Amino acid sequence: MKLLITNDDGWFAPGIAALARALCAEHELYICAPKFNQSCVSHGLTLKKPMRVEKIEIEGVSAAEAVCMDGTPADCVRFVLSHLKWKPDAVVSGINKGGNIGTDVLYSGTVSAAAEAAMYGLRSIAVSRNTFNTDYFDDAAAHFAENFELFLSCTTAEKRLLNVNYPFLPLGEYRGIRAGYLAEQVYADEYERVELEDGGAGYVAPSVKMTECAEDDTTDEKFIRDGFVTVTPLKYDTTDYEQLARIVSHVEKNYDLKG
Question: Which helix (H) or strand (E) holds 203?
Answer without folding.
Answer: strand 201-204
